[in-house]
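ugh ok fine here u go
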Amino acid sequence: MYTTDHLRQMLLQLKLLNVEQKLSESLVKAQTEQMTHQEWLTLLLQTEINEREQRMMKTRIKRAKLPQNHLLEYYDFGVDNGISKTQMNQLKELHWLEQHFNVILMGPSGTGKTFIAAGLAYLALKAGYKAIFRTMEDLARILKLSDMTKNNRAQYNACVKAELLVIDDLMMFPIEKKVGQMLFHLIDTLHEKSSVIITTNKSPKEWAEALDDQVLATAMLDRLLHRAQVVQLKGESYRMKNRKTIF
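structure:
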């Protein structure tokens, strides 16, 4: 006759660790609610599936390098920054991602661009898409060193294979010629195959100045805007408006 200890050993052998941890609890629940064997087994297996999915999601968020704040359910619609609740809900539905559309979030610093972009990337991850979030500073390093180090090559390949690539603070700083050309190549590779979210506080005219190349800036914008929703944010910085002090 098999005992609970025997069952635990078999669960550990099969590496069903979450089921093993919840075994006693599930046995009590089964007895209290008079579950059938099938109902009890379903409960155990669903517990294992839920725990594994949560672990996988945490790993995907870590690899995507999302900012700490990325939950759009906490978005403050009391702030008038140019995007309505209806527009936000449409973005959250991710239909644009299914159709390989891009989203360009433009506006002054502190108006919520990064938070929205990270939130959409998180929803994409939850929906099963491969999503990557990188600041332009990080991406510039990846592009520049992709042929020199194994780590940066792996990160570059992850960007190429992403179904959603978020580039945060694009054109905030001047971009080296070589990096600009590699960035164009990356965007061109993703064109009509994946979606890109751009956050920027620069106008298209200023992109040419950041790249120091009008032709390259025009070609890049041509790819990004071909199938894109441009969201123009406005207003004063939310961080400055809600800033905290020591005293």
